[in-house]
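Troubleshooting: if your tokenizer reports a length mismatch, compare your output against this known-good record of 501 residues.
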Amino acid sequence: MTEQDPIDISRLETAEHPQTLRRIAIEPLSRVEGHGKVTLLLDDDNRIRQARLHIVEFRGFEKFIQGRPYWELPVLVQRLCGICPVSHHLAAGKAIDQLAGVDRLTPTAEKVRRLMHYGQILQSHALHFFHLASPDLLFGFDSDVSRRNVVGLIERHPDLARQGVLLRKFGQEVIRVTAGKRIHGTCAIPGGVNKSLERSERDYLQQDIGQMIAWGEAALALARNLFLAAREQHRRFARIDTPMLSLCRTDGALELYHGELRAVAPDGAKLLERIDPRDYHRHIREQVKSWSYMKFPYLQQLGPEVGAYRVGPLARLNTCDFIDTPLAELARIEFRALEPGGLVQSTLAYHWARMIELLHCAEKIEQLLADPDLLGGELRQTGEMRPRGIGVIEAPRGTLIHDYEINPDGLVTRANLIVSTTHNNRAMNESVRTVAADLFDGREISEGMLNSIEVAVRAYDPCLSCATHALGKMPLVIELQAPDGHIVDRLIKDTRGELSR
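Known-good structure output:
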């Protein structure tokens, strides 16, 4: 790489006179609530002048559900995603509890929902780490593309691949037991749930939970060791310094189902503390940009220029004070020691944090399966209908907000959904810019450089990306154009992972 002056990453969002610059396009990049692409603009000295992650397909669910009865929402909105439908189901369930006038569920209803939620996070984290992220981490970002995928993982590390499959299967079985089926089931109804667990179902899940905890510890050790083996490289790769936001329990513990909003500055100072999630709109604003259908949220007190933040496993481990399960808490302490006095900001640390949460969820499932309330009979509370309900939950990818308003007939009149990937939108753009500025010097385009940009986005586990990346063979076209528009260089990767020019 040629020696260059440091690049101000903050200036890479908008370029002056873009029509005079050469354009590199990576399209499609991934399925993040639709199709995504990356564009890079270079000047005549081969310096990056603009780098953007574009979300180019419109979602529209806020409009689709208008006019529908509010009690249908948990079933309707989970169609947003085939990977994390439980998260949308439960966020909508929490919102319709409020619409139904219910502020507190029965112990059985809350614990059934929590069990379902922990199963969802466990299976989602297992899918992402073992199937999507580990090939890059184990084989290298620029290793042979023919083996840098889940098939290569199975061939080189069959025991690891098997553990990933069985961890995910167990999480899906938890979902099936609580929701009736693994994908797009039912569970949450206004004010509660539609079933408790049978004793046989509880016993069935208890048979394997000890093994899941053991495999969770092994997965955590692998993620930790892979990060520390190349600590400085991983610490710097796609690194950006941002505030972080998540739910926390009242006492500061990690909380995935129901808590209070907390935001923390890069130096560890509290920006938001003990905020009722139903007041999110007083603290979070959404910015619109012409080149993406996805909005750009920011903290109102900091403003749109510097108020972008991150959510998800990395944010949750940075914002919480402790984890209330012993194995995960020991891991959290070591994790936070990476950056004493501040936040762990490395984008690749998402993978380590994700495995700490996987272990935590396995520990929480073990605790819940020993709780007799799961077998209880009181499933639902009732109340007087209200005009607005806001459900906030920690989905696998981060804080998820469902906000609904209804008319006196119970029909939806307005909806606003802020999904986890939307919270991370600005951060993913900044990480792409960082990688582009660090790795690209205008020389011949390589597949390894292309994949490094994917690695930066993939670390956030953006919603729906696994539909494209499951085999590690995402089709891509990247072009280098001269100022007069003719193509200088072009690299194509097809759905089989084969390269051509």
